[in-house]
Design a protein that fits this description.
D-Maltodextrin-Binding Protein, domain 2, 23% helix, disordered N terminus
Length: 747
């Protein structure tokens, strides 16, 4: 067996004698949850298709997988000692209509599993036949059948299936199907059938280290996952253990040293039934793992376990052994904290990359979304806002729509990144979209870095709206007046969704966050309210008929709908809109606005540096990477900030799609789009089309804006107007007053 160390020891700095508090806590925390990851390269399975499971029995590890052949398939089992010696492989051939699942092993080395055989006959469309047959099977160490026990439900059942199968500590085999639990002895004889009450809601069964059997259940009333003890002799459930925090973010495995191991997207924790909290054991980022999850956990102890990771960068699944690294053995580096409300996976990968390569700094991710519970999904963002407001700002912060960015900027909490770009010998402002940089400036300073973006806009046929970008509500109303009765402005949009679009794309015409001026009692906003009144509060189910969905793709081509909401993120999205959705020349009009500025830049990533950080040089070393060619050249979806990368993507957009066949030959093919069931060819873009797209993008100079509090104020106060109780002018005055107070409090 070959081993390759792919998890580097995480490094945290030893702070100076003057350092204390938060920094010391972060250093200690980062060093406590580090595991070394070793890849298990098994020569016996290098040519196999998949690994599906691990089984630990005594000092032996069993690796189970499947291999698909030209005629049928095979299940293979690699049986080896934990130290890698004395390895054998058992292969179990299967027919085309067979699969072997839930494979496990007893102390004598015999295998047990659920054999599924299906039969299909579609020769007579009027009498289609499908049969599923299940068997509990026992196989010897070489895969030979010892016995085969049919599993079936009552004849009155319309569906029969197997939920799980386990070998109990006393040697009996427990099988749970759609009717209940059946206990078999080691010879396949039925000992007991336990009818399961429907309301008991038994899910996955886990046998704990002490032999206690628990099942994972879901409480539909509160959305919580919980555990109950299962009496295997009676089928009765007793006691109830609610997993602390957001139980839905975990997968559960039996533990050693803990009752259960809880696996999430950030790491692995231990949990004992009845505890009020979980104990973090392993942190992926601290352990320099590119994985976002570990599958099929098999623990040897609380400091050693086996599992499978799916590497975020390569996409390959890998067998791994994980071993605890003692804190004293973890290399010391300076800690930078990256705060976010839900991690961006691209950023996560770059953090791991940075931590492995940088010999002075390392980054620790603090994902506030992990504070959320099933009862309240705003706990995390509330805590993040509280921390920032109190001055406890992470060194690096990923912004999202739930943060009052303008308020934080006005309070001086973020660093001006222009000073760092201008001092960087490898970077030049002129290499990037100037309008995007300008859009995220505040008083000439760049507090937000947006490495890639989309353009949020409204699109229409040029024949309907002309070639000029931007328009007012008066312009839109004039176009609609010329259209046949029944023509819709947007396709199946409600009043609330159109209000959201108006604020997201053109809301800055009503608020100037730099000066604090609000214009919600203006004629322009009153006109917006009057425009919104034509849209329904909500559509009932009768609106979405079969005919609607059948004709949906043809709505714009046929002129039944005038405008399309577009998140334009690539040359391809433009090409499909023009040649697919509309079938003719299109114009980016944007949402109607008094200043005719109704398109917005929507960031795919929005990074800031804390002005309070004590390690700004380290923060810049991380953030600058997102401006480099190395990063920008990886971007395929979303507009890159780099003009150089844009040029490369433009050249690609002018070529037909292609792939390399098995003979190494390049094969070109056409992209296609279906409209009303008819296939339409999407031809490569011309230079004129590329120029049109880039010319438009360069005109967009305002950031996407979404403020839930603002939307709520407008929605609440405009309701009396839409119901006919107040005039548009009256509700506009009330909205102006409330929003002005809100803006004053948050500047």
């Amino acid at each position: 067996m070959n081993k390759k160390i792919i998890g580097l020891f995480a490094g945290i700095m030893v702070l100076s004698l003057a350092a204390c508090g938060k920094g010391e806590e972060e250093v200690k925390s980062s060093k406590e949850h580090v595991y070394k990851a070793e890849e298990l390269t098994l020569d016996e399975i290098k040519d196999k298709n998949t690994v599906s499971n691990f089984i630990l029995s005594g000092e032996r590890l069993y690796v189970v997988g499947n291999n698909w052949l030209d005629n049928g398939s095979e299940t293979y089992i690699v049986n080896r000692k934990l130290d890698g010696s004395d390895s054998t492989t058992t292969t179990i051939p299967l027919e085309d209509n067979q699969s072997l699942n839930s494979l496990t092993v007893d102390e004598q080395g015999n295998y047990y599993g659920i054999l599924n055989e299906y039969f299909e006959d579609s020769s007579d469309p009027e009498n289609y036949v499908w049969e599923d047959n299940y068997y509990l099977v026992k196989l010897d160490a070489k895969g030979g059948e010892i016995w085969k026990q049919p599993l079936k439900g009552e004849e009155s059942e319309t569906y029969y299936g197997i939920n799980w199968m386990r070998i109990l500590r006393d040697g009996r085999i427990a099988v749970m199907d759609t009717q209940g639990i059946t206990l078999f002895d080691s010879e396949g004889q039925v000992q007991k059938k336990i009818k399961q009450e429907e309301e008991s809601n038994i899910g996955e069964v886990i046998e704990l280290e002490d032999g206690t059997i628990v099942v994972n259940c879901y409480n539909q009333e509160n959305g919580k996952y919980l555990f109950k003890k299962l009496d295997i002799e009676t089928g009765k459930l007793s006691e109830e253990y609610v997993v602390p925090g957001n139980s839905s973010m975990y997968s559960y495995f039996p533990g050693v040293g803990y009752d259960l191991l809880l696996v999430s997207n950030s790491g692995i924790s231990g949990y004992n039934l009845g505890d009020e909290s979980v104990t973090e054991l392993m942190n992926y980022i601290d352990s320099d793992l590119n994985a976002s999850y570990i599958y099929n956990i098999v623990p040897v102890s609380d400091k050693e376990f086996y599992g499978m990771i799916n590497d975020n960068l390569t996409g390959y699944s890998t067998l791994m052994k994980f071993t605890k690294v003692e804190p004293k053995d973890v290399v010391d580096k300076k800690v930078l904290t990256l705060g976010c409300n839900g991690i961006n996976w691209d950023v996560r990968n770059q953090v791991v990359k940075f931590n492995k390569a940088n010999d002075q700094y390392r980054i620790k991710i603090k994902d506030y979304s992990e504070y959320n519970t099933e009862e309240d999904y705003t706990v995390g963002i509330t805590k993040l806002n509280t921390d920032i407001a109190s001055g406890n700002v992470p060194d690096i912060l990923i912004l999202d729509n739930n943060l009052p960015t303008e308020s934080y900027i006005s309070k001086g909490l973020f660093e001006d990144l222009y000073t760092y770009i201008d001092k960087d010998e490898e970077l030049n402002r002129a290499d990037y979209f100037q309008n995007v940089l300008k859009a995220y400036e505040t008083n000439g300073k760049l507090y937000q870095l947006v490495p890639s973006f989309s353009v949020f806009t409204v699109v229409a046929k040029t024949a309907d709206v002309g070639t000029e970008t931007g328009w007012s509500l008066e312009d839109l109303n004039a176009v609609m007046a010329s259209k046949p009765e029944g023509t819709e402005v947007f396709a199946n949009e409600t009043r609330g969704s159109v209000l959201n679009y108006s604020i997201q794309m053109s809301g800055r015409q009503f608020i100037d966050w730099e000066t604090g001026e609000c214009k919600f009692n203006s004629d322009a906003f009153i006109s917006l309210l009057e425009f919104l009144k034509q849209f329904p509060e909500q559509y009932d189910d009768s609106y979405y008929t079969d005919e609607f969905w059948r004709d949906y793709d043809s709505l714009w081509r046929d002129g039944k709908v005038l405008l399309s909401i577009s998140y334009m993120d690539s040359f391809s999205s433009y090409n499909y809109m023009k040649k697919g959705t509309f079938g003719e020349d299109i114009t980016f009009k944007g949402f109607p606005a008094e200043d005719r500025n109704g398109s917005a830049i929507m960031p795919n990533l929005d990074l800031v540096m804390s002005s309070k950080s004590k390690n700004k040089d380290g923060v810049w070393q991380f953030i600058r990477y997102f401006l480099t060619d190395e990063y920008q050249n990886t971007l395929e979806y979303g507009w890159p900030l780099s003009m150089k990368r844009i040029d490369a993507l433009a050249e690609k957009a002018k070529q037909r799609e292609s792939y390399e066949d098995e003979n190494g030959q390049i094969v070109e093919y056409d992209q296609t789009y279906y409209v009303g069931g008819v296939e339409v060819t999407i031809s490569p873009m011309t230079q004129d089309e590329v120029d049109d797209v880039l010319a438009f993008i360069n005109t967009v100079d305002q950031p996407y804006s979404y403020d839930e509090n603002l939307i709520n104020i407008i929605s609440e106060e405009s309701a009396p107007y839409f119901s006919g109780q107040k005039s548009a002018k009256d509700v506009a005055d009330i909205i102006q007053s409330r929003v002005q107070i809100y803006v004053n409090e948050n500047r």
